[in-house]
From TrEMBL:
One of its GO terms (cellular component) is plasma membrane. Belongs to the SLC29A/ENT transporter (TC 2.A.57) family. Keywords: Membrane, Transmembrane, Transmembrane helix, Transport. It comes from Ancylostoma ceylanicum. It is a multi-pass membrane protein. InterPro entries: Eqnu_transpt. This is Nucleoside transporter. GO terms for molecular function: nucleoside transmembrane transporter activity. It is found in: Membrane. The gene is Acey_s0004.g1857. The chain crosses the membrane at residues 72-90, 141-158, 178-200, 212-238. It holds the Pfam family Nucleoside_tran.
Length: 242
């Protein structure tokens, strides 16, 4: 059955999205066992113990936010952009235009699994691993390339997404624009999210390190939810703006 048929497409996306959300929850739990995360959380606990503070107060949350707001916004933006296009928009993109025959060397039934999910998971993992060895840009400049990732949203909108119903013209018809765009999007998702989560506890006072880590987790989840909620907006724009 063709992936372009509405029932098939809806069922596929309905299955993909919960799977990816579960994966992101696993990613969040993985942050809590990474060495850098444990180090700064322990450092914050020791500093708060020395100050006889038992739990973060509202003032501490406010002070932590003032110290690491750029990193927190970066965490939000990374996951917002990623979830706005992956998996729904990417899985709904094909190598052919409306009414055109399938023109990819990859079989139709394997296309989303290879070009979207395998591609994304592999490159995001490489990006996360790279962040353990290379930390660039620094905390003060990270927000700029992260904000530039917002361009991935119109980029993938201008690929062959939702070809049967779209009105918006397609600018990037060749499938390699789509595949290489996903490579870059996935790598930067893993890399920049790891950097932002690393930097947040570093740039605040030691006593606020744990609070900054908790705030990072909150902004991560918020970015995921806002990104998922933005998918219908993308589809509406593609289908109504010509």
């Amino acid at each position: 059955m063709s992936m372009l048929q509405p029932a098939s497409f809806t069922s596929r996306i309905g299955g993909y999205t919960p799977t990816f959300l579960t994966s992101d929850m696993s990613t969040l739990s993985e942050y809590s066992i990474q060495d850098f995360y444990k180090y700064y959380i322990d450092k914050g606990n020791r500093a708060r113990a020395a100050e006889h503070a038992t739990r973060p107060s509202l003032k501490q949350f406010s002070e932590a936010f003032k110290g690491c707001w750029q990193q927190l916004v970066s965490v939000f933006l990374v996951f917002f952009v990623t979830l706005a296009v992956f998996p729904a928009v990417l899985a709904g993109t094909t190598p052919n235009g409306k009414g055109e025959p399938w023109n990819s060397a990859i079989p139709r039934e394997l296309y989303p699994g290879i070009t979207v999910f395998l591609n994304f998971n592999l490159m995001a993992a490489i990006g996360s691993t790279t962040a353990n060895f290379v930390q660039f840009p620094g905390p003060k400049l990270l927000i700029y390339p992260v904000a530039a990732r917002l361009l991935f949203i119109p980029y993938f909108m201008l690929c062959n997404y939702n070809v049967e119903d779209r009105i918006m013209p397609v600018w990037f018809k060749n499938e390699w624009f789509f595949i290489l765009g996903n490579v870059l999007m996935a790598f930067t998702s893993g890399y920049f999210s790891s950097l932002a989560m690393m930097y947040a506890p570093r740039v605040v006072q030691s006593s606020y390190a744990k609070t900054a880590g908790m705030a990072g987790a909150l902004f991560l989840i918020t970015g995921i939810m806002c990104g998922v909620a933005f998918v219908p907006v993308i589809t509406a724009m593609v289908n109504n703006i010509g």
